[in-house]
Protein backbone atom coordinates (compact mmCIF):
# COMPACT_ATOMS: atom_id res chain seq x y z
CA UNK A 1 0.00 0.00 0.00
CA UNK A 2 1.13 3.51 -0.83
CA UNK A 3 1.54 6.48 1.49
CA UNK A 4 1.17 9.83 -0.29
CA UNK A 5 3.10 12.72 1.25
CA UNK A 6 1.93 16.11 0.00
CA UNK A 7 4.73 18.66 0.27
CA UNK A 8 7.29 15.87 0.34
CA UNK A 9 10.15 18.09 -0.82
CA UNK A 10 9.85 20.45 2.18
CA UNK A 11 11.79 20.21 5.41
CA UNK A 12 9.14 18.21 7.25
CA UNK A 13 8.02 16.29 4.18
CA UNK A 14 11.56 15.10 3.47
CA UNK A 15 11.81 13.63 6.95
CA UNK A 16 8.39 11.96 6.66
CA UNK A 17 9.52 10.42 3.35
CA UNK A 18 12.74 9.14 4.95
CA UNK A 19 11.02 7.58 7.95
CA UNK A 20 8.15 6.09 5.96
CA UNK A 21 10.60 4.49 3.56
CA UNK A 22 12.69 3.12 6.44
CA UNK A 23 9.51 1.55 7.84
CA UNK A 24 9.00 -0.31 4.58
CA UNK A 25 6.12 1.69 3.11
CA UNK A 26 5.76 2.40 -0.61
CA UNK A 27 6.09 6.17 -0.87
CA UNK A 28 4.72 8.71 -3.33
CA UNK A 29 5.41 12.38 -2.72
CA UNK A 30 4.43 15.66 -4.31
CA UNK A 31 6.30 18.89 -4.93
CA UNK A 32 5.17 22.34 -6.05
CA UNK A 33 8.41 23.80 -7.46
CA UNK A 34 11.13 21.17 -7.45
CA UNK A 35 11.39 17.51 -6.42
CA UNK A 36 13.68 16.32 -3.66
CA UNK A 37 16.74 14.26 -4.59
CA UNK A 38 15.59 11.47 -2.26
CA UNK A 39 15.21 8.21 -4.14
CA UNK A 40 12.88 6.68 -1.53
CA UNK A 41 9.78 8.10 -3.22
CA UNK A 42 8.20 8.45 -6.62
CA UNK A 43 7.72 12.18 -7.24
CA UNK A 44 4.69 13.96 -8.67
CA UNK A 45 4.36 17.65 -9.45
CA UNK A 46 1.16 18.96 -7.90
CA UNK A 47 -0.41 22.30 -7.08
CA UNK A 48 -3.16 22.15 -4.45
CA UNK A 49 -5.01 24.86 -6.37
CA UNK A 50 -5.44 22.46 -9.31
CA UNK A 51 -8.29 20.19 -8.27
CA UNK A 52 -8.14 18.05 -11.40
CA UNK A 53 -4.45 17.32 -10.84
CA UNK A 54 -4.98 16.52 -7.18
CA UNK A 55 -7.75 14.07 -8.02
CA UNK A 56 -5.70 12.52 -10.83
CA UNK A 57 -2.83 11.75 -8.45
CA UNK A 58 -4.98 10.47 -5.58
CA UNK A 59 -7.19 8.32 -7.81
CA UNK A 60 -4.27 6.79 -9.70
CA UNK A 61 -2.16 6.03 -6.63
CA UNK A 62 -5.03 4.91 -4.36
CA UNK A 63 -2.94 5.59 -1.24
CA UNK A 64 -3.89 4.06 2.08
CA UNK A 65 -2.92 7.31 3.78
CA UNK A 66 -2.29 10.92 2.76
CA UNK A 67 -0.10 13.16 4.93
CA UNK A 68 -0.43 16.82 4.04
CA UNK A 69 2.88 18.38 5.12
CA UNK A 70 2.61 21.32 2.73
CA UNK A 71 2.80 24.92 3.87
CA UNK A 72 1.38 27.46 1.45
CA UNK A 73 2.21 30.20 3.97
CA UNK A 74 -0.49 32.89 3.93
CA UNK A 75 -1.68 31.96 0.43
CA UNK A 76 -5.38 31.36 1.06
CA UNK A 77 -5.89 29.46 -2.19
CA UNK A 78 -3.24 26.92 -1.14
CA UNK A 79 -3.32 26.75 2.66
CA UNK A 80 -7.08 27.02 3.09
CA UNK A 81 -8.90 26.13 -0.14
CA UNK A 82 -6.24 23.70 -1.38
CA UNK A 83 -6.10 21.78 1.89
CA UNK A 84 -9.90 21.47 2.02
CA UNK A 85 -9.91 20.35 -1.62
CA UNK A 86 -7.38 17.65 -0.80
CA UNK A 87 -9.51 16.51 2.14
CA UNK A 88 -12.60 16.22 -0.06
CA UNK A 89 -10.71 14.13 -2.62
CA UNK A 90 -9.11 11.93 0.04
CA UNK A 91 -12.56 11.26 1.50
CA UNK A 92 -13.97 10.52 -1.94
CA UNK A 93 -11.37 7.79 -2.50
CA UNK A 94 -11.50 6.53 1.09
CA UNK A 95 -7.92 7.58 1.92
CA UNK A 96 -6.95 8.27 5.50
CA UNK A 97 -5.82 11.90 5.91
CA UNK A 98 -3.37 13.46 8.35
CA UNK A 99 -3.27 17.25 7.93
CA UNK A 100 -0.48 19.33 9.47
CA UNK A 101 -1.73 22.56 10.99
CA UNK A 102 -0.01 25.20 13.12
CA UNK A 103 -0.01 26.99 16.46
CA UNK A 104 -0.61 30.11 14.36
CA UNK A 105 -4.35 29.37 14.63
CA UNK A 106 -4.19 30.84 18.16
CA UNK A 107 -3.97 34.44 19.40
CA UNK A 108 -1.83 33.82 22.48
CA UNK A 109 -4.51 35.18 24.82
CA UNK A 110 -4.54 31.99 26.95
CA UNK A 111 -1.91 30.51 29.28
CA UNK A 112 -1.81 27.35 27.20
CA UNK A 113 -3.77 25.66 24.43
CA UNK A 114 -4.93 22.05 24.48
CA UNK A 115 -6.81 20.22 21.75
CA UNK A 116 -10.20 21.50 22.94
CA UNK A 117 -9.32 25.16 22.34
CA UNK A 118 -11.00 26.83 19.39
CA UNK A 119 -8.89 28.78 16.86
CA UNK A 120 -8.75 32.56 17.20
CA UNK A 121 -6.07 33.57 14.67
CA UNK A 122 -4.63 37.07 14.40
CA UNK A 123 -2.60 36.73 11.17
CA UNK A 124 -3.52 35.87 7.56
CA UNK A 125 -1.47 32.67 7.81
CA UNK A 126 -3.24 31.64 11.01
CA UNK A 127 -6.62 32.44 9.45
CA UNK A 128 -5.85 30.24 6.44
CA UNK A 129 -4.76 27.37 8.66
CA UNK A 130 -7.84 27.76 10.87
CA UNK A 131 -10.13 27.76 7.84
CA UNK A 132 -8.48 24.58 6.59
CA UNK A 133 -9.03 22.92 9.96
CA UNK A 134 -12.72 23.82 9.94
CA UNK A 135 -13.29 22.56 6.41
CA UNK A 136 -11.37 19.34 6.95
CA UNK A 137 -13.16 18.48 10.18
CA UNK A 138 -16.52 19.05 8.45
CA UNK A 139 -15.80 17.20 5.20
CA UNK A 140 -13.47 14.47 6.49
CA UNK A 141 -14.43 13.84 10.14
CA UNK A 142 -12.20 10.76 10.34
CA UNK A 143 -9.11 12.82 9.45
CA UNK A 144 -6.40 13.89 11.90
CA UNK A 145 -5.63 17.60 12.22
CA UNK A 146 -2.16 17.81 13.78
CA UNK A 147 -1.20 21.22 15.14
CA UNK A 148 2.50 21.80 15.65
CA UNK A 149 4.91 24.59 16.53
CA UNK A 150 8.38 25.71 15.37
CA UNK A 151 10.05 22.77 13.62
CA UNK A 152 13.73 22.36 14.43
CA UNK A 153 16.46 20.16 12.98
CA UNK A 154 19.54 21.06 10.97
CA UNK A 155 20.07 24.11 8.73
CA UNK A 156 17.24 23.04 6.45
CA UNK A 157 14.98 24.39 9.21
CA UNK A 158 14.13 28.05 8.65
CA UNK A 159 14.62 28.76 12.35
CA UNK A 160 18.07 27.13 12.49
CA UNK A 161 19.15 28.77 9.25
CA UNK A 162 18.09 32.16 10.63
CA UNK A 163 20.36 31.69 13.66
CA UNK A 164 23.33 30.78 11.45
CA UNK A 165 22.76 33.80 9.22
CA UNK A 166 22.32 36.22 12.12
CA UNK A 167 25.55 35.04 13.73
CA UNK A 168 27.37 35.34 10.40
CA UNK A 169 25.95 38.82 9.85
CA UNK A 170 24.53 37.81 6.48
CA UNK A 171 20.95 38.55 7.50
CA UNK A 172 19.34 41.47 9.28
CA UNK A 173 16.85 40.97 12.07
CA UNK A 174 16.46 40.18 15.74
CA UNK A 175 15.25 37.30 17.90
CA UNK A 176 12.43 38.34 20.19
CA UNK A 177 12.54 37.68 23.92
CA UNK A 178 8.76 37.99 24.36
CA UNK A 179 7.73 35.60 21.56
CA UNK A 180 7.22 32.15 23.09
CA UNK A 181 6.57 28.81 21.40
CA UNK A 182 7.02 25.06 22.08
CA UNK A 183 9.49 23.89 19.40
CA UNK A 184 9.46 20.30 18.18
CA UNK A 185 12.19 18.26 16.55
CA UNK A 186 11.47 17.33 12.94
CA UNK A 187 12.27 13.65 13.59
CA UNK A 188 9.79 13.47 16.49
CA UNK A 189 7.10 15.26 14.51
CA UNK A 190 7.50 13.05 11.43
CA UNK A 191 7.40 9.90 13.55
CA UNK A 192 4.24 11.07 15.34
CA UNK A 193 2.51 11.92 12.05
CA UNK A 194 3.25 8.48 10.66
CA UNK A 195 2.09 6.83 13.87
CA UNK A 196 -1.21 8.75 13.72
CA UNK A 197 -1.63 7.80 10.06
CA UNK A 198 -1.78 4.13 10.98
CA UNK A 199 -4.19 4.37 13.91
CA UNK A 200 -7.91 5.04 14.08
CA UNK A 201 -7.33 8.44 15.70
CA UNK A 202 -9.34 11.39 14.40
CA UNK A 203 -9.87 15.04 15.21
CA UNK A 204 -7.38 17.55 16.58
CA UNK A 205 -4.04 16.47 18.01
CA UNK A 206 -1.21 18.65 19.31
CA UNK A 207 2.34 17.68 18.37
CA UNK A 208 4.71 20.13 20.03
CA UNK A 209 7.70 19.85 22.33
CA UNK A 210 7.38 19.94 26.10
CA UNK A 211 9.46 23.10 26.63
CA UNK A 212 8.19 26.65 26.10
CA UNK A 213 11.01 29.02 25.08
CA UNK A 214 11.24 32.48 23.58
CA UNK A 215 12.80 32.95 20.16
CA UNK A 216 16.03 34.41 21.49
CA UNK A 217 16.50 31.61 24.03
CA UNK A 218 15.85 29.12 21.23
CA UNK A 219 18.47 30.86 19.11
CA UNK A 220 21.02 30.63 21.92
CA UNK A 221 20.37 26.89 22.30
CA UNK A 222 20.76 26.35 18.55
CA UNK A 223 23.97 28.39 18.50
CA UNK A 224 25.41 26.41 21.40
CA UNK A 225 24.56 23.11 19.74
CA UNK A 226 26.11 24.18 16.45
CA UNK A 227 29.27 25.72 17.93
CA UNK A 228 28.32 29.30 17.06
CA UNK A 229 28.92 32.50 19.06
CA UNK A 230 25.54 33.06 20.72
CA UNK A 231 26.59 36.52 21.88
CA UNK A 232 26.27 37.68 18.26
CA UNK A 233 22.52 37.02 18.23
CA UNK A 234 20.62 40.34 18.36
CA UNK A 235 17.62 40.45 20.65
CA UNK A 236 14.49 42.56 20.64
CA UNK A 237 10.95 42.92 22.01
CA UNK A 238 8.22 42.26 19.49
CA UNK A 239 5.60 44.09 21.52
CA UNK A 240 7.53 47.25 20.66
CA UNK A 241 7.15 46.60 16.92
CA UNK A 242 4.14 46.87 14.57
CA UNK A 243 4.47 43.20 13.58
CA UNK A 244 1.29 41.15 13.77
CA UNK A 245 1.06 37.78 15.44
CA UNK A 246 0.56 36.06 18.77
CA UNK A 247 3.27 36.58 21.37
CA UNK A 248 2.83 33.56 23.61
CA UNK A 249 1.43 30.32 22.20
CA UNK A 250 2.10 27.25 24.32
CA UNK A 251 0.65 24.11 22.79
CA UNK A 252 -0.28 21.53 25.42
CA UNK A 253 0.39 18.14 23.82
CA UNK A 254 -0.10 15.96 26.89
CA UNK A 255 -3.39 14.42 25.76
CA UNK A 256 -1.96 13.44 22.40
CA UNK A 257 1.33 12.29 23.93
CA UNK A 258 -0.56 9.87 26.17
CA UNK A 259 -1.83 8.09 23.04
CA UNK A 260 1.51 7.89 21.23
CA UNK A 261 4.55 5.65 21.39
CA UNK A 262 6.59 8.47 19.82
CA UNK A 263 8.01 10.76 22.48
CA UNK A 264 7.84 14.48 21.75
CA UNK A 265 11.03 15.80 23.33
CA UNK A 266 11.52 19.29 24.70
CA UNK A 267 13.97 21.69 23.09
CA UNK A 268 16.37 21.55 26.05
CA UNK A 269 16.71 17.82 25.42
CA UNK A 270 16.87 17.55 21.65
CA UNK A 271 19.22 20.50 21.17
CA UNK A 272 21.83 18.63 23.17
CA UNK A 273 22.23 16.44 20.08
CA UNK A 274 25.29 17.45 18.00
CA UNK A 275 24.63 19.27 14.75
CA UNK A 276 24.37 17.04 11.65
CA UNK A 277 24.88 18.43 8.17
CA UNK A 278 22.09 17.68 5.67
CA UNK A 279 22.80 15.27 2.86
CA UNK A 280 23.82 16.66 -0.49
CA UNK A 281 20.91 17.62 -2.70
CA UNK A 282 18.37 17.80 0.10
CA UNK A 283 15.71 20.46 0.06
CA UNK A 284 16.03 23.64 2.10
CA UNK A 285 12.32 24.41 2.07
CA UNK A 286 10.80 24.22 5.57
CA UNK A 287 7.17 23.55 6.33
CA UNK A 288 6.87 27.17 7.39
CA UNK A 289 8.73 29.62 5.20
CA UNK A 290 8.48 32.59 7.51
CA UNK A 291 11.28 33.98 9.64
CA UNK A 292 11.65 36.32 12.57
CA UNK A 293 10.74 39.42 10.58
CA UNK A 294 7.30 37.94 9.86
CA UNK A 295 6.09 36.02 12.92
CA UNK A 296 3.34 33.48 12.45
Key attributes of the depicted protein:
33% helix; seven-stranded parallel β-sheet; Rossmann fold; alpha/beta; 9 helices; two-stranded parallel sheet; 296 residues
With strands numbered from the N-terminus, the spatial order across the biggest sheet is 3-2-1-4-5-6-11
Radius of gyration: 18 Å
CATH topology of the domain at 2-150 and 185-207, what is it called? Rossmann fold
Work out the helix count: 9
Q: Kindly state the number of beta strands.
A: 13
Give the CA-based shape.
Answer: globular
Instruction: Let me know the CATH homologous superfamily of the domain at 2-150 and 185-207.
Output: NAD(P)-binding Rossmann-like Domain
CATH architecture of the domain at 2-150 and 185-207: 3-Layer(aba) Sandwich
Content-based structural category: alpha/beta
- The SSE string, one letter per element, is EHEEHEHEHEEHEEEHEEHEHH
Summarize the amount of helix as a percent range.
25-40%
First-residue to last-residue Cα separation: 36 Å
Largest sheet: 7 strands, parallel
Name the CATH class of the domain at 2-150 and 185-207: Alpha Beta
Mean pLDDT: 91
Poorly predicted parts: 277-296
- Range of strand content: 15-25%
Amino acid sequence: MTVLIVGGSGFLGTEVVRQASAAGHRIAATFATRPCAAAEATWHEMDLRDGDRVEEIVSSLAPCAVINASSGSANWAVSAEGSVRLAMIAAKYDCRLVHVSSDAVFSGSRDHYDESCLPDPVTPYGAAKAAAETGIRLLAPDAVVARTSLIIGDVRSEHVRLVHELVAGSRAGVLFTDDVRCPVHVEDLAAALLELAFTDASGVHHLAGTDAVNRHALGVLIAQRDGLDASRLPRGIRADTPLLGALNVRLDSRATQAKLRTRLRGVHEFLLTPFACPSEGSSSDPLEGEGEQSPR
